[in-house]
Structures are given as structure tokens and as C-alpha cells.
Specification:
The protein has 264 residues and is α/β, with parallel strands linked by helices. It has one domain: TIM Barrel. The chain contains 12 helices and 9 strands. The protein has a 9-stranded parallel β-sheet. Helix 10 links the parallel strand 8 and strand 9. The radius of gyration is 17 Å and the shape is globular.
């Protein structure tokens, strides 16, 4: 059982839902990344998604794009991100870590080399936004054999046939994109999620996390009435932007407020 699976099982037994913050590796600066990771875990994060900076992030809104551009300005690439994971693992061997990014850096490294390096660093899961399920069965197999989880995105437009294809390859959890568009949008319709989540649950027993558009504790709590996890990215990045001199404190305060709302 992977660390991700173990975490969801422990939360289920405790009657709790997962809080999964997303942060861009290298933002607001490379030295801050690992301390912020530790800070959000101490504040109540259950799993951390770490974004791999990429020059053409098709699914990212302006907030995460800016963070990625800043990180790229510091020359933070996939090798740097894996080194950050290794550094984090020196003092935290428990918290599940998920890399989220795009195919190009993985292809540049080579899929086999990436899987080996990610496993060695201590990565637990991988989300590759632009790997279509039709073309990544070999990659999914390699990730599973390394003891990691390959996590896929589902959208409001995903058909039952496509969902069935995805759940045949996925493990760990599924990331349901709550709206069509890019990250950071502010028009999340919580009331419309329940029926869609119920439809997906008919096809899989994997935990379902919901992301895109969650901006506060109240929304995260509402989401978790029907989902297994709330995934928050752009709003956390905004907190890091607002106080780059004290990123650990600002990130921890925000995550703690969401955790408290979810547990209330």
C-alpha cells in the first residue's frame, strides 16, 4: 500500500477528509520551497502537490503561471524539484508527495529515468496534465511497479467511457477538475458537484479530490461533504505572493484556517 493509499485509509478511519495544497517548486524562491512544504504539513496538510515549473502550462491560470515563470527564472527544473523532494524526505518520511506537471520535462529526462529518479527521491504520486490515458499505459505500469501512484484529472466534460479508461490506469486518487477552464477561476458551483461525484463513484472506489476554484475554508468544507479531498493551489500561491519575505508563516496560516474549517 502506497503512502497515498495509507493516508486516505487513515483519514477514512478518523472520519476526516484530505487537505491537499498545491505549491510551485521554486516559488517564491528555491530556498523557501522545502521550509514551506514542512510548514503546510505542520499546519494540517495531508498530501502536498508540488508543481514542476514549465514554460507552457496549458491548464494553469495566471497566478500559477506567474509562480512558474518566477521559478524558471531561478532555473528550477525537474532535477531541482527532485532534489527538493529528497531534502524534504530527510526529515519527513510520512507525508505523501505528488509531483504535478507536464510531459515535456519527463520526456526530456526519459520516462524510465524519471520513474527511477522520482522513486529514489521519495515521490509518491505523479500527475502529468498532458499525458492522455490512451497513450500512457506503459508509463502507468512503470509508475506502479516503482511503488508510486499515477493520478489523472477528470473534467466535467469527461464521458463515462473515458472515466472507465482512466480508472483502469489510475491509482492513489482521482483529481476532479470542478470547472472547465484554468486554475484559479472563481466561479465554482459547489451545488452542482454532488450529482457528478456520485456518477464517478459508480465507476471507481478510488478517493476523489476536487480542485480548481477552491479559495477558502468554507468552500473546502462544502466540497468535502461530497468529495474525499479538497485541493487548493492558486489561493495558496497568492498567499505566498502577498508576503514573500515570510512565506512559511503566510502559507501555514492559510492552510491552518482551511484545516480548521474542514474539521469544524
Amino acid at each position: 500500500m502506497s503512502r497515498i493509499q495509507s493516508k486516505f485509509e487513515a483519514l477514512r478511519r478518523a472520519g476526516k477528509k484530505a487537505l491537499i495544497p498545491f505549491m510551485t517548486a521554486g516559488f517564491p524562491n528555491p530556498a523557501a520551497t522545502v521550509p514551506v512544504m514542512h510548514a503546510v504539513v505542520a499546519a494540517g496538510a495531508d498530501i502536498v502537490e508540488l508543481g514542476v515549473p514549465f514554460s507552457d502550462p496549458m491548464a494553469d491560470g495566471p497566478v500559477i503561471q506567474r509562480a512558474g515563470e518566477r521559478a524558471l527564472g531561478y532555473n528550477v527544473g525537474l532535477d531541482s524539484v527532485l532534489a527538493m523532494v529528497s531534502e524534504f524526505r530527510k526529515t519527513d518520511a510520512i507525508t505523501p508527495l505528488v509531483l504535478m506537471g507536464y510531459a515535456n520535462p519527463i520526456e526530456a529526462m526519459g520516462q524510465k529515468a524519471f520513474v527511477a529518479a522520482a522513486h529514489e527521491a521519495g515521490v509518491d504520486g505523479v500527475i502529468v496534465v498532458d499525458y492522455p490515458p490512451e497513450e500512457c499505459s506503459d508509463f502507468a505500469k512503470a509508475v506502479r511497479e516503482a511503488g508510486m501512484d499515477l493520478i489523472f484529472l477528470l473534467a466535467p466534460t469527461s464521458t463515462p467511457e473515458r472515466i472507465a479508461m482512466i480508472v483502469g490506469l489510475a491509482s492513489g486518487y482521482l483529481y476532479y477538475v470542478s470547472l472547465t477552464g484554468v486554475t484559479g477561476a472563481a466561479h465554482l458551483d459547489v451545488s452542482g458537484l454532488a450529482a457528478r461525484i456520485a456518477e464517478i463513484r459508480k465507476l471507481t472506489s478510488l478517493p476523489l479530490g476536487v480542485g480548481f476554484g477552491i479559495r477558502d475554508g468554507a468552500t473546502a468544507r462544502a466540497i468535502c461533504e461530497v468529495a474525499d479531498a479538497a485541493i487548493i493551489g492558486s489561493r495558496l500561491i497568492e498567499e505566498l505572493e502577498s508576503d514573500p519575505a515570510a512565506p512559511e508563516a503566510s502559507a501555514a496560516a492559510f492552510v491552518r484556517s482551511v484545516r480548521e474549517a474542514m474539521d469544524r
